[in-house]
Here is the input.
Amino acid sequence: MIENPILKGFNPDPSICKRGEDYYIATSTFEWFPGVQIHHSKDLKNWQLAARPLNRVSQLDLMGIPDSGGVWAPNLTYADNKFWLVYSIMREHRAFKDVRNYVVTADQVEGPWSEPIFLNASGFDPSLFHDTDGKKYVLNMVYDFRNYHPWNYGISLQEFDLDQQKLVGKPTMIFKGTHLQKTEGPVIYQLKGYYYLFTAEGGSQFGHSVTVARSSQLKGPYEVHPQNPILNAWYAPENYLQKTGHGSLIETSNNEWYLTYLATRPIKRAGKGLFEERGFCTLGRETAISKVYWENDWPYIEGGQVAQQFVEESGLPEVPWPKPAKKQTFKDGLPNEFQTLRVPFNEKMGEISEAGLTLFGQESLYSVFEQSLVARRFEELSFTAETQVDFSPEYYQQMAGLVCYYNSKNWTSLQITHDEEKGKILTLLACEGSSLSWPLQGKEIILDATTKIQLKVMVDPVHYCFAYSIDGLTWNELPCTFDTYKLSDDYIAKPFLGPTGSAFTGAFVGVHCNDLLGTRKAATFNYFSYEEIADKEELRCKK
Here is the structure.
């Protein structure tokens, strides 16, 4: 059986395509660099990260991009013996959507990928349709900033001229959406004598859905599926998977059909209100898969409208991939699981040697410009992460440590810094909704000036807490427990629902170094380990 989600942790907006016997899924990365994650599978069950194609600043310049801006909703296709990747760079996503849409290509998914070609800026979620006559068309949702109108103006279609490398002619509005509204994520498939238009509707929260329409003509008119939406969890709040939407269709080598889509695994909390009843999704929006069958030339989800945790296997020969090592030493470079914020890992940020990963202190964790932070996704609801750090701060504005991070205004760091009276100390610094707090104020751990120290975070579905060790054998848990749900889209966006703000990513854990003096004080991290814990009771965070 295939167990959902197939891509764990923050991996939203999946776009699936096939070349030969190989399947690829591209997902959004927002402000994290490099841009776009492409996973590879041969059986739809086992996946491994194959590429992050937007890995040069000339392709992707995210300096100053707001939280949850950056790379939105990539669309990956294979045609004319090469891969095509269409994507949005969202520069500002609040009242207006200041967006730029691009296309890049590559002969191999591993790259090299071309420099981007600008397409348009009318809205987000672009996709590329390759028609049987050789013509190509770009679709995207058109955004309406007039707050007395629905923000989804409709789905636009415009021809992309290969010779001129640009859109030509005028865009045509081919679909205005259904009563679910918030129509986005358009992608077209030409099958069974029809053009099938798949869209995401109902918004990115618990009403998120996959909807389908079809037409005998590319430009419409489109008739809506008789049982729209084909995938939705709104009326099943108890279901394992929620927020199911943004679907992408694939036919396997043995003529079976599957749909990939984003989904979440919420953890419920006591209390009244939508998010308390529905749950909070710390892992962000992940990628799931369901089998599809056809009836009267319409696609349906096997098992019904609500996504299932377990799915019938594709019947393809199973090809498992090696699992990443639990403990990484950095000696061979940054492991695939890790990313940086907005800019690539570079000489200004740090270096890698036999000693491990050295980060040079830059701006604060609050910054959206130049941070020295290297992190990986939360992939499980219960895990431990651990590192060893060698850092000798000389001023209170120099900090380095282990951080649980959602975005620049929501994170918690166990960090080494300097106190004028106590010298080198270990303390906690928390940022929630832009407000800073020091949970260990007055109870900081005083450290020897030359001591290397090991730091650990223990995470379960409800809480996370930190511990430290001087000798690597005895761990000392700190008397502070934090709510895991506060690292979720749902908690962070809740006060700002509507056009004023959004949160679309997921929780990360990693290491950081900050030097607000501007002297680039260095911190060296000897290793980083990440290990799933099957029994959350083993964590024993003090309540």
User: Anything to note?
Assistant: The domain at 327-539 is CATH 2.60.120.200 (Jelly Rolls).
